[in-house]
Amino acid sequence: MTRELMNLKDISDYLQVPESNIKRLIDSDQIPFHDTLGSPRFFRAEIDAWIKAGVPKERAVSGGGEQYLYRGKPVLDYMLTCSKVLIGKTPLGRLPGFIRDACRLLDEKKKGFLLRKDFEPLIKNFNDYLRLSCQLGLIDNVRAGRTAEYYPTAYARQICDDDGIEAVRETIKDCIWDIVKSGKETLPQERHAIFLIWYYLKLKSEGIDPSEKYFDKCGENNFYPKIRLDFTKNLCDFLFDGDTTAENDYFAAWKKICG
User: Fold this and answer.
1) Which of 152, 186, 203, 222 has its CA at 20 to 30 Å from residue 213's CA atom?
2) Secondary structure string (H, E, C) spanning the chain
């Protein structure tokens, strides 16, 4: 059971974001916390209310102030975390191998699921690959008390059988599509990579060349907008291989579902 009063590690596990992100939220006074005991503590009820409230609308910025809504909520109001580790063709090109190794390891262990520590020997920066795999629906993250159990999905198994990178791309796009059709991209936690893909394709569909200013949340004045942009551009290049027609067709179908 999740504690009513949580420390930094607890809240990191609860929100499924790195402790470093939580510390930045504390430093900028963006998350409710208490430091009476000398180190930050978080009440679960306050955190739940904070998540439900979202970022105040006046703080959501999108190049000149225009709001792009995703399922009725400004897309920049979503957390939109990403990884600078996964920027570039080479890092993303390792994702299929990571998925295949995870499936192989699961079969070897014969216990039905993997723990976070099991992924560590598979690849450097395994946390980033695991987080992205969960966001894309390739690995399911299920809580068993304080422990997270990880289950490669049927799409991960399909990647094991895919012959060539094009087949892998189609499998991942099908996986994202099924998540969107079922409306599960916001449950049980935000799937940040999916929102970023939608936003990038939305900008391009409007004839806008995506730039850092469109990925700047609340006038951050730091390096995060560039990381979000570079990560999203590389992820879309990985999925669509620069095929503008494929991007347009995928986004048109997506738009019919959630606007």
Assistant:
1) 186
2) CCCCEECHHHHHHHHCCCHHHHHHHHHCCCCCCECCCCCCEEEHHHHHHHHHHCCCHHHCCCCCCCCCEECCEEHHHCCCCCCHHHCCHHHHHCHHHHHHHHHHHHHHHCCCCECHHHHHHHCCCHHHHHHHHHHCCCEEEEEECCEEEEEECHHHHHHHHCCCHHHHHHHHHHHHHHHHHCCCCCCCCCCHHHHHHHHHHHHHHCCCCCCHHHHCCCCCCCCHHHHHHHHHHHHHHHHHCCCHHHHHHHHHHHHHHHC
Q: Which amino acid is at 175?
A: C
Sketch the domain layout of the chain as residue ranges: 5-53, 84-258
Residue pLDDT, tens place only, 174-187:
999 999 999 888 77
The answer to whether 168 and 138 are in contact (CB under 8 A) is: no
Long-range contact list for 210-218, CB < 8 A, 24+ apart? 211/63, 213/63, 214/62, 214/63, 215/80, 216/61, 217/55, 217/59, 217/60, 217/61, 217/76, 217/80, 218/55, 218/59, 218/60, 218/61
Cis peptide before 188 (omega within 30 of 0): yes
The token pair at 144 is 């068993």
Q: What is the pTM of this model?
A: 0.75
Query: Looking at the predicted structure, is the pLDDT value of residue 249 above 80?
Result: yes
Token pair belonging to 224: 């995060």
